[in-house]
Specification:
This protein is α/β, with parallel strands linked by helices and 369 residues long. The chain contains 12 helices and 9 strands. The protein has 2 domains: 1-32; 34-365, Glycosidases (TIM Barrel). An 8-stranded parallel β-barrel has the order 1-2-3-4-5-6-8-9, surrounded by 5 helices. α11 links the parallel β8 and β9. The longest helix is centred in the first third of the chain and has 30 residues, at 3-32. The relative contact order is 0.12. The structure holds (3S,4R)-3-hydroxy-2-oxopiperidin-4-yl beta-D-xylopyranoside. The site of (3S,4R)-3-hydroxy-2-oxopiperidin-4-yl beta-D-xylopyranoside has 8 residues, from loops. (3S,4R)-3-hydroxy-2-oxopiperidin-4-yl beta-D-xylopyranoside is lined by residues 75-76, 159, 242, 276, 287, 289, 341.
């Protein structure tokens, strides 16, 4: 073989290798295109998780957390039931572990949640009149918010106080859920809780957080409630739209409602966070507990479903970006599909193995350039 021929043969071999190499680079670049970097100048990108055990996460999962997210919410460990199961018992280890991780990685942490009808042990209400229940709530909030003062960027003060559904009549009212808090304290349990949180930390952002408040009668009730809280001097800074959505529920009308709802909250001079985002492929959206669930792995999603989910996420992020002056954070409810509370419905941007789904690229592509 002559030298020339040898050269020609080498470049013939090199060409596809170079093409392959280039392709591998662009594939791995796509795989590492980080959400938090794409949205660095727009809003925080969060995930929800807990350090229940020291070895909770694999090294790949830790890498996923630190490369894509700059905000964390404890999925369960700061809720009243888990953290304060009895009047004189506190479980500090899991939230402490989360906060030491987030401090180490310079990730902002958002507290969830101080007052809720669910995951709250009955001792709060045992033999309690209004004053006793309020005193217990004040101690709860002061102890928890006080312990983490300066280390938590915002608290969901009250979670899910508004009833589901409703009609044209309830839409003109707050339509409060008939919770033990409402029964024992009365409708000012919200204002009281916001006040206690502000006493405990003068600087922290304070949220009202709920699901489906962007839509229909429940949205109208949310405006009635928020206006009352503001008029009563509750130190509320932000509204958390949970954002548990489903492909079936995300109709053109629903996107418009989300867009409008953010504008309405902004008009009340409140910040908005999307606090628990997920988009299920089928079945339940909404924040009701018990839908979807962890358990037997579902059949893998089809390419069409993954594409539809990617398009839904792109549209949602388009709306959040449009309102970037008000939206300061978008948090996904879970790290990847296997860890999601709606795991059977594959709702997140990473699959059961923590690998990027088409949604990830779509979300990154929706970021302003
Ligand atoms: C869910 C958690 O993800 C589950 O692990 C737990 O079993 C129940 O609560 N709205 C909320 C969240 O505000 O706290 C809920 O989290 C999901 C609905």
């Amino acid at each position: 073989m002559t030298a020339n021929l040898l050269l020609a043969r080498r470049s013939f071999l090199a060409a596809p290798a170079a093409a392959l190499f280039a392709q591998r680079i662009s594939l791995s670049a796509a795989a590492v295109a980080a959400m938090k970097d794409a949205y660095r100048n727009v809003f925080l990108i969060g995930t929800a998780l807990d350090f229940r055990r020291p070895d909770e996460f694999t090294s790949e999962e830790l890498e996923l957390i630190t490369s894509h997210f700059n905000a964390l919410t404890p999925e369960n460990s700061m809720k009243p039931g888990p953290i304060h199961p009895q009047q004189d018992t506190w479980n500090w280890a899991p939230p402490d572990a989360l906060l030491s991780f987030s401090a180490d990685k310079r990730i902002k942490t958002f507290g969830h949640t101080l007052v809720w009808h669910a995951q709250t042990n009955p001792w709060f209400f045992e033999n309690a009149n209004r004053d006793v229940a309020l005193a217990r709530l004040r101690t709860h909030i002061h102890t928890l918010v006080g312990r983490y003062k300066g280390r938590i960027a915002g608290w969901d003060v009250v979670n899910e106080a508004i009833n589901d559904g409703g009609d044209a009549t309830t839409a003109a009212t707050e339509n409060l859920r008939n919770s033990r808090w409402l029964q024992t304290v009365g409708p000012d349990f919200l204002t009281q809780a916001f006040g206690f949180a502000r006493e405990a930390d003068p600087d922290v952002a304070l949220h009202y957080n709920d699901y489906t408040i962007e839509s229909g009668f429940k949205h109208q009730s949310s405006l009635v409630l928020l206006k009352r809280l503001i008029a009563d001097g509750a130190p509320i800074t932000s509204v958390g739209i949970q954002g548990h959505w489903s492909l079936t529920g995300l109709t053109p009308e629903r996107y418009q409602q989300i867009d409008d709802a953010i504008a309405h909250y902004k008009a009340l001079k409140l910040k908005v966070a999307i606090t628990e985002l997920d988009v299920t492929l089928s079945g339940a959206g909404g924040g009701q507990l018990g839908g979807g669930g962890r358990g037997t792995p579902p059949p893998p999603p089809t390419a069409e479903q993954l594409q539809a989910q990617a398009e839904a996420y792109a549209k949602l992020f388009g709306i959040f970006v449009k309102h970037r002056d008000a939206v300061d954070r978008v948090t996904f409810w879970g790290l990847h599909d296997r860890r999601s509370w709606r795991s059977a419905q594959s709702p997140l941007a990473f699959d059961r193995d923590g690998k990027p789904k088409p949604a990830l690229d779509a979300i990154v592509a929706a970021a302003p350039k």
